[in-house]
Amino acid sequence: MNTTNQHDKKLRIGVIGTGAIGVDHIRRCTHTLSGAEIVAVSDVNIDNAKKAVTPHNPNAKAYESGHDVINAENVDAVMVTSWGPTHAEYVLSAIKAGKFVFCEKPLATTIEDCDKIIQAEQAHGSRLVQVGFMRPYDKDYRALRKMIVDGAIGTPLMVHAAHRNQNVGENYVTSMAIFDTLIHELDVLRWLLDDDYISAQVIFPRQTSHTHAKLRDPQIVLLETKSGVRIDVEVFVNCQYGYDIQCSVVGEKGIVSLPDPAAVALRSDAKLCTPILTDWKERFIDAYDIEIQEFIDGCKTGKIKGPSSWNGYVAAVAAEACVKAQETQAIEAISIPERPAMYK
Ligand code: NAP
């Protein structure tokens, strides 16, 4: 898009996929953030697309196909919030149209498709893609990283993390614990440690009775980084009690840990209680707001800064090794090629 005199004009966004997060991003662009408006939407169910923008986005048109959204003349930037396996097709189409695109994680569901995206973006010559890894925008993760960078815990040695969801549906299978869930840790822990992974192993503890035949739950993922940091991540997606994200980094002279989200404490009946969140949309609501505002501002200035296609590619490489490790129950190597200059 032409960036001259664009600062005062609203960025016109087209959204592909109006399920849970698509609707949430439409809400935040419409009611919470500044500088953008939703002008086009699509979903496999066009009635859902229409409902997602009515009545607050009078200028929005619903299209049958995501490609029509991308190619609509009045769409400046695209948001891909459809089902993961459709992401690559839409992101490649947006790059071809020369439009900025925010793609929810995962960037693509195979390494080959992630590779096609980074090749296409490099051929374009400048960044067009921001991937929806929002944890680096969370104030507590940022505080954790600052402490590590400032040397508060000395050299990091180990990370203990947990990603727990209250429950998942019958269509959530064992590999999704990696591609859908762990993928956030795969991105944010690299960023926290400023390091890359070299191996992965997956251990299956005793199963919870709350799972189903196609899902091993819980799982423990063990990662090793180039510098020798050892990471264990518990992924437990039927934990019953809430949505709970934990992370502690152990260093040579101290430990930094994510705090629990602020909540009112109730003293009553000889107990002290604080509620635990159950909805992921609430847990990272501020991070999503900052992430999408940064995307909007980046599109308007012609320079986006958030997690790149390279982050999406590296997460996919690590995720694929983890899925292999689920199958082999062995330690699997993770080999990440040199980062192309455009992403340095
Ligand atoms: P969802 O509720 O199932 O929504 C996906 C929507 O996309 C559905 O309405 C689906 O329609 C539609 N869709 C499927 N294929 C499409 C296509 N070819 N063109 C247009 N629309 C299509 O899932 P969600 O929870 O919103 O997740 C969407 C994406 O966001 C996933 O990649 C997910 O991993 C990611 N996500 C990220 C976060 C985060 O924290 N960053 C959180 C949640 C989700 P049908 O229902 O009819 O199939």
From TrEMBL:
Residues 11-133 form the Gfo/Idh/MocA-like oxidoreductase N-terminal domain. Residues 145-329 form the Gfo/Idh/MocA-like oxidoreductase C-terminal domain. It catalyses: myo-inositol + NAD(+) = scyllo-inosose + NADH + H(+). SUPFAM superfamilies: Glyceraldehyde-3-phosphate dehydrogenase-like, C-terminal domain (SSF55347), NAD(P)-binding Rossmann-fold domains (SSF51735). Pfam families: GFO_IDH_MocA (PF01408), GFO_IDH_MocA_C (PF02894). One of its GO terms (biological process) is inositol catabolic process. The keyword Transmembrane does not apply. Gene3D superfamilies: Dihydrodipicolinate Reductase, domain 2, NAD(P)-binding Rossmann-like Domain. GO terms for molecular function: inositol 2-dehydrogenase (NAD+) activity; nucleotide binding. Keywords: NAD, Oxidoreductase. It comes from the Bacteria. Its EC number is 1.1.1.18. Homotetramer. Involved in the oxidation of myo-inositol (MI) to 2-keto-myo-inositol (2KMI or 2-inosose). Belongs to the Gfo/Idh/MocA family. This is Inositol 2-dehydrogenase. The gene is iolG.
